[in-house]
Amino acid sequence: MEIAKRIQKLGTETAFAVSAEAAAFAAKGNKVYPFHLGDMNILTPANVMEGAIKAMQDGKTGYCPNAGIPQLREILAADVSAARGIPYSMENVAIQPGGKPTIGKFILALMNPGDEVLYPNPGYPIYESQIEFNGGIAVPYSYLEGEDNFDIDIEKLAKKITPKTKLLILNDLQNPTGAECAMEELQKLAKLVSKHNLFVLCDEAYFDIRYAGQSTSFAALPGMAERSIILYTFSKKFAMTGWRLGAAIGPKEIIDVIAKLNVNDESCPNHFIQYGAIAGLTGDQTEVRQILDTLKKRRDAAVDILNSIDGIHCFRPNATFYLFPNVTAAMQQKGLYDYEEFRRSVLTATGVSFCSRLHFGRPLEGEKNAYIRLAYSGIDKSEIEEGLAKFKAFIED
Ligand code: PLP
To answer: Which of 9, 121, 222, 264 has the highest CB neighbour count under 10 A?
Structure first.
């Protein structure tokens, strides 16, 4: 058997390997505190479930239009328009089986082999994987740590733009750092995008996972809607990670291409689930607010303990469900200088399982600080407190 050569360029989410290690550790009878995966242990709102079940019983079990059912496309366009201040209509929306498919389809629609694509590093690993798999050149841009945020190093990013640069991937409200772009940062990026005629993937997976302030879409800046595809997902806001429902939203010409890719890949998104999504978007929002409230309490518990640990600094992100504490001094204190050694030592000694910077792209030249990533979407507050107390004891011992 010979596996096709192109597969060598396909990356993966190494966080799943951390999951497997944690599961193997738990199978031996050990207690595990799962901070490694951005999955959710919160129930999907009842009205979403009821909407989907009713649709199934009503016979919405056959194929549906390739870009999704018109009602959902219309309602989602109105919802996204109102939240972002961009006038979208149904024609601007192609429903997807999750948020993730928008990444590959955006790249397939707009990138030719040999084109350069700017992407965040540390960042969601699927960007690099999809760029390289499809024959592009993945060009990482980095972040600078501030007191209470991570800022994109725009000066460095600008220097990486060449005549071959075609696309920019922007994950504002970022996984893994929890970083949020200031308006000034977005404006600087918009200037570069216009000047160099780039197209942008606005990965807004966490747009609605926000505890204070208001989310801003890069696509809402003057002239940017024409150049941007928004990655929308139902996964996080409605705790629907396993349902697989999202959308690509942007200029009709690109959305038509993405819908054609739907025809080729999955024919259509899951039919009856879309009725659940309609119920979620138009129905009572109490449970959506409760999801946020639960996550906020978890964030505060985790940040408070992390900042009480000698050698760890963690800012309190207003959005996402990730923390990216700087653990440089803590690792030094323990005499551990290798990420994987540190991660495994903590898992073995305390059961606390997390990813490190290594799981979010190849470290860049000149990186001096060490970071780990904790997701608090799949672990209850009491477990956060118990697990991180053990982590604290381990570091300070
Ligand atoms: N983009 C980012 C930044 C993410 O963190 C995730 C999921 O963790 C996704 C996209 C994909 O989301 P979905 O589960 O909807 O495919």
So the answer is: 121
